[in-house]
Amino acid sequence: MLLRPALFISAVLFTLGVAGVLFRRNAIVIFMCVELMLNAVNLTFVALAQTLGMGGQVFVFFVMAVAAAEAAVGLAIILAVFRHKQSVSLQNMNLLRDG
Amino acid sequence: MTGTAVDLIWLAPALALLGFVLNGVLSLTRPWAGAKTLVSLIGVGVLVGAFIVALAVFRGFFGLHADAPVVFRYWSWIPVGTLQVDVALQVDQLSTVMLLVVTGVGSLIHLFSVGYMSEDPGYARYFAYLNLFVFFMLVLVLAANFAVMFVGWEGVGLCSYLLIGFWFNDAVNANAGRKAIIMNRIGDFGFMVAMFLIFWSTGSLDFGTVFTRAPTALVMGGSAITAITLLLFLGCTGKSAQIPLYTWLPDAMAGPTPVSALIHAATMVTAGVYLVARCNLLFAMAPLSSAIVAGVGALTALFAATIALKQWDIKKVLAYSTISQLGYMFLAVGTGAISAGIFHLATHAFFKALLFLGSGSVIYAMHHAYHATHSHEDAQDMRNMGGLRRSMPWTTALMWIATLAVAGIPVLSGFFSKDEILTAAFARGSTHPEWLVFWGFGLLAALLTAFYMTRLMLYTFSGPNRTGENEQAHLHEAPWIMTGPLVVLAVLSVIGGLLNVPALYHGGEWLHHWLEPVVQPSVALLPEAHLTSATEWILVGVAVATATIGMTGAWRLLKPERLVPARSAPEERGLARLLRNKWYVDEIYDALIVRPVVWLSREVLWKQIDQRVVDSAGVNGAARGARALGWANRWLQSGQVGTYVAVFVVGVLLVLWRAIS
Predict the structure, then answer these.
(1) Distances in whole angstroms, Cα of residue B336 to Cα of each of B438, B454, B543
(2) Residue B583: what pLDDT?
(3) Per-residue DSSP letters for B520-587?
(4) Is the pLDDT of residue A97 over 70?
(5) Which of A16, A25, A94, A95 to mutate to test the interface with B (most CBs of B within 10 A)?
(6) Tens of pLDDT along B342-351?
(7) In this structure, are residues B116 and B483 in contact, taking their beta carbons and an 8 Å threshold?
(8) Could you count the other beta carbons within 10 Å of the beta carbon of residue B538?
(9) Given A18, A95, A97, which is nearest B637 (Cβ)?
(10) I need a surface site. Which of B67, B225, B338, B422 has the fewest CB within 10 A?
(11) Cα separation of A11 and B609, whole Å?
């Protein structure tokens, strides 16, 4: 069975995604890291679906659909921010802070 | 429904209310040519209409020969569990008498007001208030339960306040109104607590139910019934100006004089007497309370009479006289002589309304005289009057009739009613010696009454005139619309005694028999007291002698020709000064109650509790706390998405760690 290696890879990918979100400043890179985390979860679903039934595989499709929608909205927001600020660095996005 | 004119009872208060609404609307419009005529027609018209309704109701009820009250339930007002209060009116022997007095005397006073207030800019407002007062007074006397009666009780207090402060541009008048309503609040508190206790002990507020259940639900002379009656009497001392809450009434003279006649002499202030008469069964069940009612009444009668001896303001004399006469009524109802109390209430309404309206005519004339010469002298000070009989013969004659009536000179109305009260008090003295003291107080007060009333008449109408050289020419009799009601009241003051001529003079005691169904329950509880007719004749002789001594004494001792106008009058000394300053009761109340309350309110409640606790610690404290919390937490809100994510991740890790371990 490839369950163990699959879960291991999934954990590594997810950790990479989290680390990327935490430490990178570029919004597009962070966005890609979020996708990475989603796909790490997808991998877990598929791996476990081998033993626990087809529900996991079905769920992957849902995640992919949501990720596609999220990509559309997220990229549009990033584009809007870039037009406004000429930058996609998260450091410059602090309008919610007072003063 | 009885199928007679009694069914129309709702019309009487409804007419008065209609008058209030119409005149109230008119008072808001800009003055136009016919406005005053319209206001007069509405204001007087609704009262005359109410009086006609009252007559019809009386006729109808008389024909029924009913022993029980006729109760009309209109709609349910407070249906809460066992507390069922309906808006209900009750017609019985007592309420018909009050109905006739209120609408009858009220009509005459409304008519008088047409002349007295004719030049006042607030004419429509005045009649609106006066109509509203009559409405509430009728609700008070016609109510079939304590709750509806309380509505009327509060309503007349409100109208009293509005009318005392009618000329509110002058701070003195506004303050007098406030004093009246605040002192009445103390009494109303007693009324309300009594009402709660009545409901608690009998489970109802309907007069009929309460009086049926009271003998079984309450122990005769027990603490509950004593508390109820004493609290009710506290309400009476406020509304009817008895010791200790009487001090508002003399100040209430700040209002227009017809108001003093209607509200502060003839009707509203007698509400307390009516309340005791209505609850005669409860008071009969509480001998201690009855003794207190009679004692306070007798003491008030004497105390107020002493003050009246040395007042210079003509209306103040009459105000203290009213307090004194109300004391007589409470002496009567406290003794259990309910019909005597109501009898005196009716005759007093006639002659005291006459006296007040007569003094209104005098003040009207004085005011016009001073107005014509642009003088700023006091138009109500008797030292500025004197010799008015030459310019005002009608008023003089009519007021003399009322004076003889209030002094208790035979065959006039006041003689019969006052004598009946004193006889009843004396009769009770045979079983309860303390009543002999009350009787003594009453007799002494009668002496003083004769004295101060003669003094008022002598100083106002006899001797030389002190108004002033230029003013004398302008003094003249009031118009007929004002003198007319005086004539009617004078006739009533003379023949009012016919209502209840005692058996001693082979009279029918009509009022006594008429009120029997209402009074019946309490009569059985009271000790029988019978005087031989010889004793009664002696008592009558003593009373007449007292009145005569008082009047001739005043005639001999007082020298109107020696008086000087108020402007140059010297200060009194000794006892006279004490009486002039009303025994300093106002000052004592001020020092003992008003100032400590004001100090407590200002220094403790305001500066400590309100400013320090509520404002500083409470309101501002909460705001400051929220601000400090926000200041402490603001570092969390860096605005950096990275920081938020880091915190989020730490949180997720913590949750995972908790879930795993």
Answers:
(1) 14, 31, 21
(2) 87
(3) HHHHTTSPP----HHHHHHHHHHHHHHHHHHHHHHHHH--GGG---GGGPPPP-HHHHHHHTGGGHHH
(4) no
(5) A94
(6) 999 999 999 9
(7) no
(8) 13
(9) A97
(10) B67
(11) 64
pLDDT tens-digit map of B566-606: 777 787 888 888 888 888 989 999 999 999 999 999 999 99
Average pLDDT, chain B: 91
| Residue B82: Cβ within 10 Å count | 8
Query: Residue B73's pLDDT is what?
Result: 93
Q: How far is B186 from chain A (nearest CA, A)?
A: 57
B222 CB-near residues (< 8 Å, 6+ apart): none
A97 vs B322, residue with greater confidence: B322
Residue of B506, B490, B487, B510 lying closest to B498 (CA atoms): B510
* H or E stretch at B76: strand B70-80
- DSSP assignment string, A29-69: HHHHHHHHHHHHHHHHHHHHHHHH-THHHHHHHHHHHHHHH
ipTM reported for the complex surpasses 0.90: no
Q: Is B639 on the interface with A (CB under 8 A)?
A: yes
Q: Does A91 touch chain B (CB under 8 A)?
A: yes
List CB contacts (< 8 A) between B637 and chain A. Answer: 96-98
The two three-digit tokens of residue B422, written as one number: 């004193």
A96 to chain B, any CB pair closer than 8 A? The answer is yes
Contact indicator for B546, B443 with CB cutoff of 8 Å: yes
Q: Do A96 and B639 touch (CB under 8 A)?
A: yes
Give residues with Cβ within 8 angstroms of B522, minimum separation 6.
Answer: B280, B281, B283, B284, B336, B338
Tell me whether B638 touches chain A (CB under 8 Å): yes
Lowest mean pLDDT among B88-97, B518-527, B561-570: B561-570
Max intra-chain CA distance, chain B: 114
DSSP bridge pairs for B589: none
Closest residue in B to A98 (Cα) is: B639
Local structure of residue B79 (DSSP, 8 states): E
Token pair listed for A15: 């950790």
d(CA B261, CA B257): 6
Residue of chain B with shortest Cα separation from A96: B639
Statement: residue B189 has pLDDT above 70: yes
Distance CA B332, CA B341 (A): 5
Two tokens, residue B439:
């009787």
Cross-strand bridge partners of residue B503: none
Is the torsion defined by CA of B645, B647, B650, B652 positive or negative? negative
Which residue on chain B is closest to A15 by alpha carbon?
Answer: B649
Residue B642 contacts A where some CB pair is shorter than 8 Å: yes
Q: A1 falls in which pLDDT band (50, 70, 90)?
A: low
Write the CB contacts of B528 (distance below 8 Å, at least 6 apart in sequence). none
DSSP state, B381? B
Chain B residues in contact with A25 (beta carbon < 8 A) = 642
Judged against a pLDDT cut of 70, whether residue B280 lies above it is answered with yes
Per-residue model confidence (pLDDT) at position A98? 58
CB B482 within 8 A of CB B360: yes
CB pairs under 8 A between A and B: 26
